[in-house]
Design a protein that fits this description.
Layout lengths: L22 E5 L3 E7 L20 H19 L6 E11 L8 E11 L3 E10 L2 E12 L2
Length: 141
């Protein structure tokens, strides 16, 4: 079980306003559970994407899910080094995610090697799926 108190900034190169992980709730080699709440005040800069609505941009949700997966992999000590999101194989949106709602990501590790991490996940809001995606991250350098 990972140390919840470990600073997310120790796990990822991202910094505010581009750090989209609040907490790694649990993780093992098969599954990761993480949380992110997009606070409406802190993330005001994102609101221009849907000015008439209260939705977090879908691309940001995918980035957040990939960051959660990568942070947990590093926290578990499975991989080290700098990995970057290089492809999104599949993404399907079921509903909009509003600001100030906790998003729970349930992520499956499909393949982990020295050079790549392939994962898939579902983003839940109020226990209902909002997004499902599969992506690939590759070691940089």
């Amino acid at each position: 079980m990972p140390n919840k108190e470990q600073n997310i900034e120790e796990l990822l190169p991202h910094r505010t306003p581009f750090l989209f992980v609040d907490e790694i709730v649990s993780s093992d080699k098969e599954e990761i559970v993480a949380i992110k709440t997009f606070d409406s005040e802190t993330n005001q800069w994102l609101r221009g994407s849907f000015p008439e609505h209260n939705f977090v941009p879908g691309t940001i949700l995918i980035e957040s899910m990939a960051q959660c997966g990568g942070a947990a992999i590093k926290q578990m000590g499975i991989m080290d080094g700098l990995f970057a999101l290089t492809s999104i194989e599949h993404a399907e949106f079921f509903k909009g995610v509003e600001y100030d709602q906790p998003v729970k990501y349930v992520i499956k590790n499909i393949r982990i090697s020295d050079k790549l991490i392939k994962q898939s996940g579902v983003a839940y809001v109020n226990e209902l799926p909002a997004l499902e995606a599969t992506w690939l991250c590759v070691r940089m350098g």
